[in-house]
Amino acid sequence: MILARIDGTVTATAKHKSLENLCMLIGQGVNERGEDVGEPWILLDKLGAGLGDTVLVTSEGDGARKLTGHDTIPARMVVIGIVDRGEERK
pLDDT digits over 11-27, tens only? Predict the structure, then answer.
């Protein structure tokens, strides 16, 4: 599982049928300190994450299939949780 910050949304004029009723978001991977890691991704979201939210993402292929019920979904990065707050460990 990966932490990411939501930096924007993706608008599509045409979508694969398996992506209907899902939001596509731009997510920037972050480390535990909130620092950017790697390149941004397109994330599928059914939970309602918003701009600036920190989310928990899975990149397992089964995550997207389970979310949509489609075996042929052309995506694999899925928001599986919205982080309420983070606390620094001592």
Answer: 988 888 888 888 999 99
